[in-house]
Each structure stands twice: as structure tokens, then as C-alpha cells.
């Protein structure tokens, strides 16, 4: 990643800001600007996501789409097009198309089509009257987050503690995760993964404890195995080929 980029993360759900938080925070650390726009985030959760974004140095906004109603209407496209033309990003990070079709979280599938259509239309002479003062913006380089088949890993070791602190801010998500893991996992399995899990006081503590283990496992997996070079890495899939003047190390 070059220094001083303008990166825009277009997310469906709030926790995704933290899931991509390493790349976003590292860009800020290197002198760039990182932005995030979230389509679906409950009003009660928005202050927590805002705090997480502040830890990462990310400027976050919310589009307040409603669950179960994401569509390809012109109105929906304009919400995203306006953001893209305002931010003028060099890089966009968004959800992985392949992952979105397998994920059973609601709205991911229509959101993926909406996101890609909006990125494409942002570069054309579409809806210029509806976005006064904003010119078409060329399609940025696109990276897909948490892909099934990554072709890129980003070393986030230097901002790992910042990413973990940002995750601490997502209290309602941690509580939901704690309830989920408590119901889903066999007690013996939970103890193997997180010794003392059953003795934790509440769902929030259980969720945060399990996320710390999962987060480290995922990032180590993408960083070190198969002769990897990084202790902790975020995985991405770049859309299209790399266009290089010469081969790079």
C-alpha cells in the first residue's frame, strides 16, 4: 500500500469497519485519509461504531438503510454515488461478492450488486443534476474484504493493538457474539478455545474473550503459514490484475 492514499470503505454492517481496521488505520498512520460509510447499522449501535472508527482514525458516516429493504433503486444508488464522488477515493474496500452470496446475513446479496453498480455509475455522467457540484470519479482500485480466495495480505502488526481497542468499543456486538457462542459451542469445546469461558460473568465478557481468540487466529493464519512474512495480516482480494511498470519484490 502506497503512502498517503484516500481509502473509502463501503460496508454493509458496522463491525466491518474494525474487520478492515488494520488497513484503514495503517493508511492513516502513513499519512493517508481513511473513510467508512456503513449501509446498515442500528441507531443504538452507531455511537459504538463511531468510537471504534475514532480509535482507528477513520471518518465514518451512516446511510441508514433499513434491514430487508436494500434494493437497486435510483434512490439507493444515489446515496452511495454521492459518497464516492465526495470522498474521491484512490482505493475502495468493500465486501467480497463470492462471500456475500454464501453469507446468510440479510441484505448482503442485494447490497453487493448495489455497491458495484454504484461504484460503476459514479464514474459515468449519471445523475449529475442530483449530485450538484460533484463530478464523476474514475473507478478506484477495489479490494474485497475477508474473501474466500485472497490474493493480498496486509501486515497490520504495527496497528494490532489499535484494532483490538477498536473492537472493544463494539459492546452490543460483543454481547450478541457471547450469546451466540454460548448457545452454539459445546461447553468442552468452548473451554478448549477459551479456558475459563463458562466462568465469565456475562455475554459481553464471553463475546469479547472469544473474539480475541478468533481475531488472533484469523490474522496469524493469513500472516504466517505457507512461508508468510507477517505475524498478523488482514486478507483481501484485489479486483482485476496488478498493473506494474516492472516486477516488484
Describe the structure.
With 249 residues, this protein is α/β, with parallel strands linked by helices. It has 2 domains: 6-154, Rossmann fold (3-Layer(aba) Sandwich), CATH 3.40.50; 169-229, no CATH class. It is built from 10 helices and 7 strands. The chain has helices spanning 16-19, 21-29, 46-56, 74-87, 97-102, 108-122, 160-168, 171-184, 187-193, 203-223, and strands at residues 6-11, 33-38, 58-62, 91-95, 141-145, 152-155, 233-238. It has a 7-stranded mixed beta sheet, with helices on both faces. Helix 3 runs antiparallel to helix 7 and helix 4 (74-87) crosses helix 6. The longest helix is centred in the C-terminal third of the chain and has 21 residues, at 203-223. It starts with 5 loop residues before the first strand and ends in an 11-residue tail after the last strand.
Amino acid at each position: 500500500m502506497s503512502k498517503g492514499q484516500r481509502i473509502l470503505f463501503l460496508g454493509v454492517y458496522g463491525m466491518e469497519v474494525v474487520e478492515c481496521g488494520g488497513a484503514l488505520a495503517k493508511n492513516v498512520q502513513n499519512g493517508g485519509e481513511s473513510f467508512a460509510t456503513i449501509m446498515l447499522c442500528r441507531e443504538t449501535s452507531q455511537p459504538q461504531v463511531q468510537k471504534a472508527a475514532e480509535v482507528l482514525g477513520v471518518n465514518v458516516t451512516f446511510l441508514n438503510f433499513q434491514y430487508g429493504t436494500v434494493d437497486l433503486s435510483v434512490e439507493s444508488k444515489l446515496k452511495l454515488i454521492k459518497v464516492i464522488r465526495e470522498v474521491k477515493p484512490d482505493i475502495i474496500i468493500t465486501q467480497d461478492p463470492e462471500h456475500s452470496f454464501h453469507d446468510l446475513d440479510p441484505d448482503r446479496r442485494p447490497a453487493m450488486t448495489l455497491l458495484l453498480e454504484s461504484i460503476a455509475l459514479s464514474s459515468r455522467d449519471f445523475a449529475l443534476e442530483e449530485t450538484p457540484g460533484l463530478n464523476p470519479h474514475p473507478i478506484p482500485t477495489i479490494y474485497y474484504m475477508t474473501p474466500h480466495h485472497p490474493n493480498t495480505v496486509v501486515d497490520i502488526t504495527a496497528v494490532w493493538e489499535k484494532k483490538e481497542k477498536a473492537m472493544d468499543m463494539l459492546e452490543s456486538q460483543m454481547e450478541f457474539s457471547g450469546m451466540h457462542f454460548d448457545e452454539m459451542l459445546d461447553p468442552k469445546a468452548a473451554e478448549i478455545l477459551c479456558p475459563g469461558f463458562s466462568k465469565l460473568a456475562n455475554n459481553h465478557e464471553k463475546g469479547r474473550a472469544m473474539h480475541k481468540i478468533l481475531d488472533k487466529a484469523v490474522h496469524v493464519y493469513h500472516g504466517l503459514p505457507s512461508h508468510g512474512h507477517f505475524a498478523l495480516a488482514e486478507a483481501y482480494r484485489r479486483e482485476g490484475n496488478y498493473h506494474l511498470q516492472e516486477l516488484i519484490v
